[in-house]
Amino acid sequence: MAFEGLTEKLSAAFKRLRGKGRLTEADVKEAMREIRMALLEADVNFKVVKQFVSTVTERAVGSDVLESLTPAQMIVKIVNEELTTLMGGESTKLTISSKPPTVIMMVGLNGAGKTTNAAKLAGFMKKQNGKRPLLVACDTFRPAAVTQLKVVGEQVGVPVFEQGLGDPVEIARAGIAHAKQHGNDLVFIDTAGRLHVDEELMDQLKVMKQAIDPTEILLIVDAMIGQDAVNAAKAFDEALDITGVMLTKLDGDARGGAALSIKAVTGKPIKFVGVGEKLDQVEVFHPDRMASRILGMGDMLSLIEKAQQSFDAQKAAELEQKLRKNKFTLADFYDQLIQIKSMGSLTDIMGMLPGVNSKALEGVSVDEKALARTEAIILSMTPAERDNPSLLNNSRKKRIAAGSGTQVVDINRLLKQFDMMQQMTKQFSGGRMKKLGKLGKMGKMGKLPGLPF
To answer: Helix 4-18 and helix 287-294: axis angle, to 10°?
Structure first.
């Protein structure tokens, strides 16, 4: 999980500050030394770290902080604000051309994932913004690039324009003309990967930029290469004057230094982040939300947005009526599991809750095959059995076990979980809501009741 080590070290530094009550200037400077080391270990650019620590220290040793009733909280607030500023202050959207189509040129190093992420962004803009994107295959150096783009384009429901392995600049021009003729309002130009030290290939990008005059030039950067990502961003920016960055594999880099350094070094914003391998795992980058997550404050806004994207409004309304009438069935139970699963990993979801850190999740085990078993069991039941599990005697359970490739003990476990879920729905329908604060103790629960994890 991104920033895992940094979050842990910053939390420890703030905990020591809170334990001191009234703070002295020496206390603050000691905490700043710890924060400086934490940032450097997270692979943040050393010049960025130096400036950040200097700014925070200057604000933190002011009399309005040291003489306040809760100086430690004031320092956390300052660090939160400065982290947000460091990463760009606020989210930056794609610039949409007043004269369609908007042309977005995707550039980056070899292996950065431009082809896949071009499709991810196209699918995101189609689904979330109602756009009609077109993918243009201009990577004529990698033999399988065109085929790959067609495959991922089909998976996200976005058409692909290609003309084989011809001149990339001419293909880009033809793709834009095609978009104008067919009403596509967004065009993603998938270019070939190249090393930023390869002058000949970088010159080709400059020629393409001049030929097609793109609205945006997005640099795709792999977060897992750390400071090399920052160096690449700087080189591409100097050559092409990029308009923004998409940081990929952020979920796989426990340090996260690239995300904290790129804006400060290049002056160009991170606009999107890739948070998983699936084609729908892309998000708008929100500096304020990321700062909150780094400091262990959670990210409820992103969690709510994930829920809104994953949950079917009509099904939710139907479920509400069933809950009110205490008619929650095994079929409903299965629907909810599918929708929760579509939001992403349990660890990522829990990490967005305030006060829940990675250590609190160490005891939570995730069984990837459990959902498949649950599906097989429920689908092996008759409609009457799903609506009324009390019908399930031993002979019926044996039949379901045989049909689903499971054992009777698996069916009993599912029924027990379902019974617990029903008890919870009675509490909801009665208006008695458990306090969210108890979620912070989930790490001690081992398995989550009502879920097959």
So the answer is: 60
Helices 313-324 and 408-429: crossing angle, nearest 10°? Answer: 80
Last residue of a domain, one of 238, 270, 297: 297
DSSP states along 399-437: HHHHHHT--HHHHHHHHHHHHHHHHHHHHHHTT----GG
Number of alpha helices (DSSP H) and beta strands (DSSP E) in the chain: 20, 8
> Could you tell me the residue range of the domain that residue 415 belongs to?
303-444
Number of domains in the chain: 3
| Closest to 191 measured CA to CA, from 209, 215, 213 | 209
- With a cut of 50, say whether residue 433 has pLDDT above it: no
pLDDT digits (tens, 9 = 90+) for 163-216: 888 889 999 999 999 999 999 999 999 988 766 566 777 888 899 999 999 999
Cβ atoms 86, 39 nearer than 8 A? no
Domain assignment present for residue 451? The answer is no
Residue 358 CA to residue 423 CA, distance in Å, equals 29
95 HSE (CA, 13 A, CB side): 15
Residues in Cβ contact with 146 at an 8 Å cutoff, skipping those fewer than 6 apart: 137, 139, 140, 162, 164, 165
Query: How many CB atoms sit inside 10 A of residue 280's CB?
Result: 15
- pTM here is 0.66
Residue 1 parent element (H or E): none
Q: Which of 114-128, 174-188, 356-370 has the lowest mean pLDDT?
A: 356-370
- Evaluated on CA atoms 442, 446, 449, 453, the torsion sign reads positive
* Cβ(286)–Cβ(33) below 8 Å: no
Residue 291 sits in the same domain as residue 311: no
